[in-house]
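Schema walk-through. Below, the input block comes first and the output block second. Nothing else is stored per chain. Lengths vary across the set, and this one has 255 residues.
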Amino acid sequence: MGFFNSSQALRGAMLACGLLSFATAANAGPAGIPYGLKLMMDSGEPFGLSASPVDGGGIRIKWDGVARKLDDERVQLALCDGDRERCASDAALKLLEIVDAGRQRDGRARLGEINRAINLAIRAMDDFAQYGQADVWSSPLVTFAHGAGDCEDYAIAKYVALRMAGIAAEDLRILVLVDFRGEGHAVAATRLDGHWLILDNRRMAMIEDTALRNYRPLFVINDSGVMKYADAPLVASLPQARREPAIPAVIAASN
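--- output ---
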């Protein structure tokens, strides 16, 4: 993920997007909540947790930069979608091919088609190897032009492809998570029949948010901007001896 500082260097960037494996945390339930702890709310967001808008910080800066590029790319994709023969962008045509395949399916099959196709179309590569830095969030056409990216690049591409395939904006999210070692990850999420499904570059199969284990959700992103999940439901109610490690200072500073 691009929100890590230089001291974590390549290992942090690789761990962040699943290029290195790590052990799972004991006694961890969905979204990092220990088994037996029941949440008593449903905000309508993934995990049912409350979230509040973020006006500044590193994550907001990164997303704002991507959002500006998305505005331009959506115009280019619309033009190419309307006239494939005159489309000069191979990256746009590759993405549109995936969108086309998704449009031919319905419901969960549509989501699974796009999730699998993008996982296969992009080669996993951390930002240090690709750009020489660890803080690059790429728009879909840049990612498809390179044919490579890390976890947030997969998530952003899925977010755009799903929207183009007909998924409503209110049913799409990008999630920024952290594991019990303090390493970050990003995934796309989409709501189907009232349930949030996680679209992860680490796996082909989609799972519900309630089944996602060993991660703590930090931020949720949509067309309206960036929101930060509340800490209390995941921290205050945990037994003292089993509280998870503190979020890395570089992530907390981006709030």
